[in-house]
Amino acid sequence: MTRGTIPFLKAHGAGNDFLVLDEQESPVPTDLSKFAPQLCCRRTGIGGDGILVIRRGHRLPAMECWNADGSRAEACGNGLRVLSLILSGGREGETWIETDAGEVRVQQLQSDGEFVAEACLGLPHVDEPLSLSAADSTLQTIPVNIGNPHLVVPLDPEGKPDPVRRFGPALEYAVPARANVGFVRIDAPDQLLLRVWERGCGETLACGTGAAAAFAALHRRGVIADAITVKMPGGILRVRTDEQGGIHVQGPAKISFRGQLSLSEQHRMLNISP
Description:
This protein has helices at 35-40, 77-88, 163-172, 208-220, 267-270; strands at residues 5-13, 16-22, 50-55, 62-67, 72-73, 93-99, 102-111, 114-122, 125-126, 130-134, 137-145, 149-153, 180-188, 191-198, 202-204, 227-232, 235-241, 247-252, 254-262. The protein is of the alpha+beta class. The protein has two domains: 5-120 and 254-270, Diaminopimelate Epimerase, Chain A, domain 1; 125-245, Diaminopimelate Epimerase, Chain A, domain 1 (Roll), CATH 3.10.310.10. The strands form two sheets. Strands 6, 7, 8, 9, 10, 11, 12, 13, 14, 15, 16, 17 and 18 form a 13-stranded mixed sheet that branches. Strands 5-4-3-2-1-19 form a six-stranded mixed sheet. The radius of gyration is 18 Å and the shape is globular.
């Protein structure tokens, strides 16, 4: 690291993109709430759905998630695969990562020469259906917590007018602590079509915990299989349940590029002395 800079990685899981900062490379501030909106802005910053920080002062490597609006996220399914790629160096095996929602096991795999990983997100909590108002409409939603809060809406994500843009912003704020909002369609017992309005950053190309939440809500109803594919704008994730009811999400992760953040204008806000 040169003086006055912080190394970073730009990476994504099925198009859900992040800036990754690693304490092993350079000190990282404890509060990124003001930093995240600047860096994640796609017009004036680097651009991204959020920032992932690898914290090293724990028994396990810890993943800290910051949304593009500067808020914290308890969990991130795609982010887990990105961190497992970085921590494992792309080698097959198993990595344990600490998150705000608990410890998560991620298994690194290979598929046709591409890096693929599967994260075990644990047992979901599925609540009773909830009727909520948004954009002069009443929608049936299914609250699910899979380490972070979701509302699953059985509504065609390809409908007109666009339901994600129409209902997503209002439904995000319709419950305490805000929620990720997934609009899902069953195309076959083992195939879902999903778009997600994510808390703190709007619609993303993919959402790992959103795929898990949609699976949990519909599997509880008995209308889908035990192992399925979830198609999203950024690609396909594979979701399954195990014998204990835990949910596993499998998909790709890639590093797009590496760079250096200059602290010349931001060091005072970051509380880092260049």
